[in-house]
Amino acid sequence: MKKILFFLFFSSILLILTSCNNTNSKKTIQLAEVTRSIFYAPQYVALEKGFFEDEGLDVELQTTWGGDKTMTSLLSDGADIALVGAETSIYVYAQDSKDIAINFAQLTQTDGTFLVAKEEKPDFDWNDLKGTTFLGQRKGGMPQMVGEYVLKQNEIDPHEDLDLQQNIEFANIPSAFVSSDAEYVQLFEPTASMFEKEGKGHIVASFGEESGTVPYTVYMAKQTYMDEHKAELEKFTKAVYRAQQWVSEHSAEEIAKTIQPYFEDTDVAMLTSSIERYKNQGSFATDPVLKEDAWNNLKNIMEAAGELPEDVAYEDLVNPTFAKDVLQD
C-alpha cells in the first residue's frame, strides 16, 4: 500500500514539474497589428487554431490603430513584432534610425480597399470621379498611396481632377462618408459590404485588383530583436505559413466561423462575403516570402504618390530567410 501511495505521490509531483517546465518554456511575443481587419484573416486563424502555441509561442495581440502608432510601439519596445504596411520600414530607415525595422514575413499581397460610391453606378468608369469629392485615407499610408497610384493609372490627377480629402482619422472615415457630401470613399471590408447591405454605398471597383502585387501588410521586427530571437521568429513564421495554407485550402465560410471571435459585431454571412471577395482577388498571400519584385512595386507606388523618401534596396530592409526556411520544412 505504501509503495502504491509513494508511486502516486511521485507521479503527481512529476506531472506538476513537467507542467511548470512546459509553461516556462513557452516564449511570449508581443504582437501589434495596425488595425483589426478581416484582411488579416490568416493571422486570426493562426491564433484560433493554436498554430503559434504548437510552436511553443504565446502570442499576445494588441491593436494599435494606425501605422504611426504601430511603429512607435515597435520602436519603443511596446511590441516585439508589428503587422503593418511595409512602407513604414522605409520611413524609419530614412530617418537614420539606430535600430531599423526589418520585414521578414508577408501576410497580404494586394491592397485591401474598395472604391465605394454613395449612389449606384451600374456602368462605372474611373472618369466618373472627375469633379467629385473623394474621401481618401491618411496621407503617406498604403491605402492612400495605392489609391492615388490607381487613379493616376487611369489618367486621373487626384489633386487636380477631384476634391481629395485626407484630413479624417482612419476610424472615422466610414461615418464621415455617410454624414458628408462626399460622393466616393475608399473602404476596407467588412465596412464596404456592410454599406452595400445597409444602402449607404455601393462597391464599384477594387483597388487591389487594379494595383497588382505589393507587400501591403507584413510582419517586421527591429534588427536587434531579430539578431537575438532568430528561433522565435522562425517559429512565428512557420505558424503564419501554416495559417496561410489553411486559409488557401478552406472555404470562406469555414474561415469566417474560425475568426468570428475577433469580429463579434459582424455576422458570419457578412464575414464570409468579405473573405470570399479577398480570396477571389488573391489578397491573402499563400506563403510568407516577400519577393523583390513586390518590394519594387511598393517603391513605385510610393514614388508616384511623392512619398518615397529614398530608394531603399530590398536587401537593406527585407530578410526573407525565415520565410524561405519554413518552405523547406
Give a verbal description of the structure.
By secondary structure, the chain is an alpha/beta fold. It folds into 2 domains: 26-109 and 214-328, Periplasmic binding protein-like II (D-Maltodextrin-Binding Protein, domain 2, 3-Layer(aba) Sandwich), CATH 3.40.190.10; 113-211, D-Maltodextrin-Binding Protein, domain 2 (3-Layer(aba) Sandwich). The chain contains 16 helices and 10 strands. The protein has helices spanning 2-25, 41-48, 51-54, 67-75, 87-94, 142-153, 173-179, 191-198, 207-211, 223-228, 230-249, 252-259, 268-280, 292-304, 314-317, 321-328, and strands at residues 27-33, 57-63, 81-84, 101-108, 113-117, 133-135, 163-165, 184-188, 202-206, 217-222. Strands 2-1-3-10-4 form a 5-stranded mixed sheet, with helices on both faces. The chain has a 5-stranded mixed sheet with strand order 7-6-8-5-9, sandwiched between helices. Helix 6 (142-153) links the parallel strand 6 and strand 7. Helix 2 (41-48) packs across helix 11 and helix 11 packs across helix 16. The radius of gyration is 22 Å and the shape is globular.
Quick overview:
Residues 1-22 form the signal peptide. With 329 residues, this protein is an alpha/beta fold.
User: Which range does the strand content fall in?
Assistant: 15-25%
User: Rg to the nearest angstrom?
Assistant: 22 Å
Q: Describe the biggest sheet?
A: 5 strands, mixed
- Write the CATH architecture name of the largest domain: 3-Layer(aba) Sandwich
Number of strands: 10
Structural class: alpha/beta
CATH topology of the largest domain: D-Maltodextrin-Binding Protein, domain 2
Query: What is the overall shape?
Result: globular
Mean pLDDT: 92
